[in-house]
Fold:
Amino acid sequence: MSDYFPLHLQNKINTRIANNTLRTLQPPLTGIDFSSNDYLGLNSNKFYQQALNAHSASGSGGSRLLAGNTTAAVTTEKYLAQLYNTEAALIYNCGYTANVGLLQSVASRHDTILYDELCHASIIDGTKLALAKSFSFEHNNVRKLEQKLKIATGEVYVVVESVYSMDGDCAPLQEIIDLKRKYNFNIIVDEAHATCTNPAAMWGVWQQVDDRKLFARIHTFSKAIALHGAVVVGSQALINYLINYSRAFIYTTAMPAKYYSNIQLAHEYIANNGEPLMLQLQKNIKLYRSLFDFETTSSPIQVLQNLPVEKLRDICAILGKHNIQLKPIVAPTVPHGKERLRITIHAHNTPSELLQFHALINTIL
Structure:
C-alpha cells in the first residue's frame, strides 16, 4: 500500500494538532457514567438484554430493494408506525443516514430548507446533499424563523430537534406548528434525544403537540433504547417516496433480520417496563438541577461551558481520577468559544454519584 499522503490533507491534520483539537480514538471509558446516551441504563439491564434476541445474526445479503428485505423488517415497521401514531415507517441503519436520506430526497434545488442553527451535523449534511436553498435561523427564535419563512420559495421545510444534542434544551415546537396558520411549510423533527426519556411523552415530544401538523419525525434507537438504527415516520406517501428516492436507504445493505426483531422487542419491553426507569431518570434530573446554580435543562443533557478548553480538559482529568467518565466537547463539534462539558444524567446514576459529581465540580471551580 502506498505511503503517499497528500500534503494539503496532512496540513489540515497539523492544524488540528496545533489548535489542540485533533480527534483520536481512545479506549472505552470506565467508571461512573455521566457521558453516554444510554439514558435508561438498558445496556447493562440484564432483564432488557434477556428480552432481546441474544442469538448471533448473519448478514442480510443485500439492500432491502434486492435480497435484503425480510418479514421481520416489514413487521417491525408496521409496529413502529402504530406505536408512533403515523401511517407508515421506514427503518434506516443509523440516525445519520436517516436524516441525510430524508432531507437529500425530499428537497430539490427549487425548494428551501430552514434549520435551527444548532441542528445536528447530519441535518446540515442532508441539506447540502439536497442542493436546495438552505438557511439557518437563530436558535429557538421563532420570530427569526418567521422572517425567513416570509421570503422562502418553493416547497419549504423547517427542521428542528425536539431536544438539542449539545445544549439539552427543547425546541418551541408548538409555536412553530402555530406558524403553519400563516405560512405553508413542512415540519421535520429529530426526536433522537427525546425518545423514551420522559414518561409524560414516552415516545417523543410529538405526544405533547398537534402531531398531525408534522411532515416527518426521526426517532433513533441508539440512545435511550440502547440499540442502533433509526426510523423515519410519516405519511404512507412519504415512506413510498423515500423507498424510491432516498439514496441512503436504497444503496445500503439491510440489517440482519434479528436486528429488526430486536427493535420491536426493545420497544415492547420499554412500553411495558420503561416508565419506572423514566421516572427515575426524571428524579435524577431534578436532583441535579437542585444542586447547581448555573443554568440547567429539563432534559438528560446538561452543559457546563464558558471555560477555556484546557480548563475543561483539566476538569475531566480530575474527574477521571475519581472514577467519573466525562470528555470535553471542543471545536469543531461546537463553535470556538462554545466548548463545554456535556453532562448526561441517567436513570442508573445514584444520588451519591450525583452528589459526588457536584462536590467535585464545586471544588474544581
Observations:
- The chain has two domains: 26-46+274-364, 59-269.
- Residues 59-269 form a domain with the Aspartate Aminotransferase; domain 2 fold (CATH 3.40.640.10).
